[in-house]
Amino acid sequence: MQFLKLSTADYIRNFDPSSHTFPPREQLGQQYCSEVNS
């Protein structure tokens, strides 16, 4: 599990909130439902 720990640490260290936009939970649910139903 050392690799997983290392990559997680790198991910957190390199994480830039301004370059990631998180849609609201409701929107994610709607997208998931529409993908499943289509």
What does this structure look like?
By secondary structure, this protein is an all-alpha fold. The protein has one domain (1-34). The protein is 68% helix and 0% strand. It is built from two helices and no strands. The longest helix is centred in the first third of the chain and has 13 residues, at 2-14. The radius of gyration is 15 Å and the shape is elongated. The N and C termini lie far apart (38 Å).
Summarize the structure.
Residues 28-38 have a biased composition (Polar residues). With 38 residues, the chain is an all-alpha fold.
Supply Rg. Answer: 15 Å
Spans of at least 5 consecutive residues with low confidence:
none
Helix coverage percent: 55-70%
Q: What integer is the average pLDDT?
A: 70
The assigned structural class equals: mainly alpha
Strand content: under 5%
Let me know the number of strands.
0
Provide the domain count: 1
Work out the helix count. 2
Largest sheet: none
How many angstroms does the end-to-end distance come to?
A: 38 Å
> Looking at the structure, what is the overall shape?
elongated
The topology string of helices and strands comes to: HH
Region (Disordered): 16-38
Biased composition (Polar residues): 28-38
